[in-house]
Amino acid sequence: MKKYAINGSPLANRTTGIERYMLEIIKRIDKKIDSEHIKLYLLCPDNTEIKLPRLQNIEVVRLPSKGSKICIGKLRSYLKSNNICYCSMSGNLCIQKGAIICTHDIRPLIYKKYDPLMFRIKCIINFVSSKLRAGKIVTVSETSKKKIMEYLKVSPEKITVISNGWEHMKDISEDENFWGKHPNIKKGEYYYSLGSQAPHKNFIWVVENAKRHPENKYVVAGKVWENSSDTVMKEQNIIYLGYVTDEENKTLMKHCKAFVFPSKYEGFGIPPLEALSCGAKLFVANTSCLPEIFKDVAVMFDPDDYSFSFEQDRKISDKKIQEVLEKYSWERAAIQWIDLFEES
């Protein structure tokens, strides 16, 4: 029997992109896995709560931790003593020869300007450890695969693409109280953008576009960075909400004029897919992997063109939307992960 242990430490964090990827895929793997041939363990810190329903076929193991992360020494010891192959779905350090590591993107290696130096050094060490030690590298788009091949000189046979999905949106209800809490936001009268204000997310595009189009109203949700919050608040036609709940996010996506995603670099880009599943019109930057995924279902724009007008439009067929939603799904991703476990 093949045995794999998934590092579940990120599941103790707030659910954003990578955590969402892990959460949705692990839930579905648990329902589909053939436990007679593959044994899966989910390794979690001993002092934190993980955001998962009770698992039926994946065994949860608690290991000693520092904060919300498992102690590396204890992790190595557990894997070795139980003869288990290591798997990280969040791009951690590759601590075992032959492990499976999911590297969502290699932005910190490619671009110096987007991330602090120490963060970049940590990420680059993780990337190189995967190049040298991993048996398989998983990534989330063909564009990311090409970048890993180009910058890390990894052979294409070593890299498997397993993308993100959207079906979690079906399980989320709208927040019926949202409009009462935010009377200055009206259904169908705002452009919505979701994401942190990290530099590569290019939030400055929304600020600059708002300056040039005072007739438009913009609603933005996500983590605020200290060095950008003052700029945001100066624009009277931007409403900044900070973190929103899943229910609030779905409400905003369903009732916006359009969903706007100006990011300059993504490994995949879950928010536009979520918005598409809610019926929103998409305006998406024509950078990194975004054309690969959304070119047939969105109006693409230059993320350096601050004067872009939302009057630029195109007719998107229901057939194209359905094709994208079928291609990028958590169900499909879970099956691909199981296939990878069986083949490795």
From TrEMBL:
Keywords: Transferase
Annotated GO MF terms: glycosyltransferase activity
Database matches in InterPro entries: Glyco_trans_1
Residue span(s) of domain Glycosyl transferase family: 181-304
Protein name, as recorded: Glycosyl transferase family 1 domain-containing protein
